Amino acid sequence: MTLDTLSDFIAAIDRIGELHRITHPVRARLELCEIADRVSKMPGGGKALLFEHVLLADGSRSPYPVAINLFGSMRRMALSLGVQELDEHGRRITEMMDLKVPDGLLGKLSMLPRLLEVAKFPPRTKSGSPPCQEVVWRGDEIDLDRLPIITCWPEDGGPYVTLTMCISKDPARGIRNVGMYRVQQLGTREVAMHWQRHKTGAEHFRQMAERGETMPVCIVVGADPASVYSASAPLPPGIDEFIFAGFLRREPVKLVKAVTCDLEVPWDAELVLEGYIDPREALVVEGPFGDHTGFYSEADLYPKVHLTAVTMRKAMTYATTIVGRPPMEDFYLGHATERIFLPLLKLTVPEIVDYHMPAEGGFHNLVFVSIDKKYPGQAYKVMNALWGAGLMSLAKVLVVLDKEVDVRNVQEAWWAALNNIDPERDTRFTMGPVDVLDHASRAFTYGSKMGIDATRKLPEEGFTRNWPKVIEMDAATKAAVDAMWPKLGL
After folding, report:
1. Cis peptide before 288 (omega within 30 of 0)
2. Which stretches make up the 3-octaprenyl-4-hydroxybenzoate carboxy-lyase-like N-terminal domain (predicted)?
3. pLDDT band for position 229 (50/70/90)?
4. Which residue among 27, 231, 298, 308 is least enclosed by CB atoms within 10 Å?
């Protein structure tokens, strides 16, 4: 069943027993975050939470419930994308990329289903009265204080809209971008847009500033889960996230024109903040913010968004998330990206067998990669290829291992790596871009990276000793013990 709305997703989570409703009064400032943080650190990610009695800054009860930790387990992440396990989408991508035209008429006809599937992906813009515009605030009606926007951490610069889909367009080519950027509430009708310099939305802003043109922007909160996830996915700049969401859903995303902006928004969205950025205005202070590294990111200058309309469903549910010291909900969103995009990574680095970004590394700080090693120096070739691949260029530490190592098992990966390396011989350092949030780098967004070759060493790599075998019991003994195991009382 396709999940078209946030309500569909919440109902599906409830059916599998992973939703917990909280009726006790909870403040949107700090208290909600503290509860969600404790739950998200429970084994398996804890349950999704629906807060039904949220207290606003003035002490009044919000008319809108708040949903959080919706994507915060492997099961819910797969559910959100309509699969039993996330690698299913990776296999679909592999099949789509393997479009070699076969010989013979029957072979060519066999390709039609895959080609027709591709044709279904583009979003469809409809006219009419969409659910996302059942309520419309304009002008003086706009008051963000009426929404349960949470303040996550004590030293945050203010309340933050976090689980966003920020929509903008390339002014020259008209290509849409949907990015998940945090948004700080500045007042009742103004917010600050935090898009880091390497993000597509920031590039759109730079282009609009060069033209001296006002930039329309829409901030969507709550929609079908595939579209929400797609906003976080590291797609190439020319790929519309709603097309990717259609691929994941196996059904096009329905859009409608915004009320005051020349942009399209999801037909079934819960909440839309419409507005504009004037590039002639001075940037505003945004932050500090308790970030996914587990540390506060410092305040910096970012564009101000003036809101021209707020539209929503009559029975709107406000969706949000928090980040901080891992593991948290964002780990599961990142894990989905890891599994779905593995086939695309293999296109340029075919020797890669698998890779994993453990929660402790905050995505960019640590990446384990297993390869099918065939020749000397191949581990370093893979390091260089990955450091030249999109957002993987921000990876601080890359550990390359042999193909039989399960890199998704962090304990096994470190066991293999720490046994297989001579630190001086097998470690390389290089310079390059680093994540904006890296507070340890020698300069803002620039610093060093470390690559560790934890593969078996070949004679050409200067290794002349015998490489030992891994200890493993023989198959016959394993089978014999398997047979007697139920009788052992263990």
Report:
1. yes
2. 11-90
3. very high
4. 298
Q: How far apart are CA 243 and CA 235, in angstroms?
A: 11
pLDDT score for 365: 86
SS3 labels along the chain = CCCCCHHHHHHHHHHCCCEEEECCCEECECHHHHHHHHHHCCHHHCCEEEECCEECCCCCECCCCEEECCCCCHHHHHHHCCCCCCHHHHHHHHHHHCCCCCCCHHHHHCCHHHHHHHHCCCCEEECCCCHHHCEEEEHHHCCHHHCCCEECCCCCCCCEECCEEEEEECCCCCCEEEECCCEEECCCCEEEECCCCCCHHHHHHHHHHHHCCCEEEEEEECCCHHHHHHHHCCCCCCCCHHHHHHHHHCCCCEEEECCCCCCEEECCCCEEEEEEECCCCCCEEECCEECCCCCEECCEEECEEEEEEEEECCCCCEECCCCCCCCCHHHHHHHHHHHHCHHHHHHHCCCEEEEECCHHHCCCCCEEEEECCCCCCHHHHHHHHHCCCHHHHHCCEEEEEECCCCCCCHHHHHHHHHHHCCHHHHEEEEEEECCCCCCCCCECCEEEEEEEECCCCCHHHCCCCCCCCCCCCCHHHHHHHHHHHHHCCC
| 216 vs 202: CA distance, rounded Å | 13
Six-digit token string for 468: 């030992």
> What CATH number does the domain located at 349-461 have?
3.40.1670.10
More confident residue, 15 or 345: 15
> Any idea which fold 6-319 has?
Pnp Oxidase; Chain A (2.30.110)
Separation of alpha carbons 438 and 294, rounded Å: 11
Which one is catalytic: 4, 224, 240, 291?
A: 291
Q: Is the CB of residue 66 less than 8 Å from the CB of residue 21?
A: no
**Phi first, then psi: what are they for 318, rounded to 5°?**
-90, 120
Over residues 154-175, the mean pLDDT reads: 92
For the chain, the domains span 6-319, 349-461
Which value, in Å, is the radius of gyration of the alpha carbons in the chain?
Answer: 24
- Specify the amino acid at residue 6: L
Report the first-to-last Cα separation within the chain, whole angstroms: 42
Average of per-residue pLDDT across 422-428: 94
Strands 427-433 and 160-161: unpaired
Catalytic status, residue 372:
no
pLDDT at 101 over 50: no
